[in-house]
């Protein structure tokens, strides 16, 4: 019996997995039971336990990420391709790209296109430099202690390098979602820029298309970051010393505001600064959500579970960030909350992105306000830093 298109594709996939030549696999045209599932992307990653494959299931309002062993990856992919699953599949290797199409009658066909570049050298890694938006040999990465002269991660820095690459990839997707790009120069602020990894990555990525300001309260880090930016010819970024709440009023008009791991209510200060500055895209990765924990009065049925401190902490994190998303939606933004990087690399991996079509601020949406107030009432919350910064009274009906 002549092999089907699906059989041919799976054979080529198996070879790419076993020979470690897979660059990327994307599955689309989902026809399964989950109406929110849109796409599956698979990429190779190197973990401490050895080669794995990162699976990202993209849903309408969230992403789910898992790292699977090669054997488990092959099984998962095989089960995901078919008439009642993903009907379209694209396999990319160093030498070719392969497309599988499944028709309504179950028949499938494969199209193969040879790549127009040379095969990888013997020391190429799974996460090939050509697939990265940031060159791993960039001098600023070396000066910040992330990579060595060969562009390889220094000891203990592999996760940080992956985070940097993942961030710029995520940013490019969010930039498209928000419709940004028509502006001659994007004005971006990174509130709480820390050691400047992600700020400098954006400066490297966008070049003259952006003017970027990093705000950081630690003067020694500001000095270091400015020196690195000047040394490596990144004139589109500058760092200045200050607190988020103090510096917010001096930002002027913004297109994008970023705040990654600004602790506790500093995240709320940053979000409010972005709203006030007319930002069309706000991207935050919250951490240390302590403000609401003393206020929470969950239903009595949850009391036995919430005697455990870890559950109280996770509930506080969920309620804090869910309210942030609802308040941003009330302020006229579309929001998306998703896992930024795998928990293999960091436990603080939640990212909240919000974008709006218009730069100017608008009146609060009644339906959005009601949703936020209803949730606050359910948990007994009367005070929330972002609500206060946006002028929202959570206790009003």
What would the principal axes of the Cα set say about the shape? globular
Q: Give the structural class.
A: alpha/beta
List the uncertain runs.
116-130, 342-347
What percent strand? 25-35%
* Overall pLDDT: 85
**N-to-C SSE series?**
HEEEEHEEEHHEHEHEHEHEHHEEHH
Largest sheet: 7 strands, antiparallel
Tally of alpha and pi helices: 12
Distance between the termini: 69 Å
Task: State Rg.
Answer: 23 Å
- Tally the beta strands: 14
The amount of helix comes to 25-40%
Main β-sheet, spatial strand arrangement:
4-3-2-1-5-6-7
What does this entry look like structurally?
34% of the residues lie in helices and 26% in strands. It is α/β, with parallel strands linked by helices and 397 residues long. It has a domain at 5-127. The strands form 2 sheets. Strands 4-3-2-1-5-6-7 form a 7-stranded antiparallel sheet, with helices on one face. It has a 7-stranded mixed sheet with strand order 10-9-8-11-12-14-13, with helices on both faces. Helix 4 packs across helix 5 (197-206) and helix 10 (309-330) packs antiparallel against helix 11. The longest helix is centred in the C-terminal third of the chain and has 22 residues, at 309-330. It is globular.
Features:
14 strands, 12 helices, alpha/beta
Q: What is the element layout, followed by pairings?
A:
Blueprint lengths: L4 H14 L3 E9 L6 E11 L2 E10 L3 E6 L1 H11 L5 E8 L2 E7 L5 E7 L24 H5 L14 H21 L7 E6 L5 H10 L3 E7 L2 H13 L5 E5 L2 H4 L8 E8 L2 H11 L4 E7 L15 H4 L2 H22 L3 E6 L10 E6 L10 H13 L6 H5 L8
Parallel strand pairs: 8-9, 8-11, 9-10, 11-12
Antiparallel strand pairs: 1-2, 1-5, 2-3, 3-4, 5-6, 6-7, 12-14, 13-14
Helix pairs in contact: 4-5, 10-11
